[in-house]
Amino acid sequence: MSTTFEIYPTSILLPTFKEVRELILNRLDHVWERYGLTQRPVLEITLINSETNDKTHPELSLPAKWEENHYLWISFQGIGGGTDGYFHSQSR
What we know:
alpha+beta
C-alpha cells in the first residue's frame, strides 16, 4: 500500500538536496527523542535511473530536482526499504 503526496512549491526557489535531507532528519529527531533512541541511522539520498536502474548520489548543494527518467530514493543505511520521490515541472 502506498500514499501519494503532491507538493507544489510556493516560490520558484527550490530547496537543495541538503535542505531536504536536513528537514527529514529534523522531523525524525522528534520521533527518535520520543522513543528514547540515541543512535541515529545514516540517511541516504540516491537518484535512480528508471530505465537502467543506475544509481548516483546527487551533489547536496544543488537544487532538489532531477530528470523525469529518474526518481529520488530516500533510505537509511543498512535498513531495508525506503521511499521514492518524483519531480515534474509545471511546464508539462
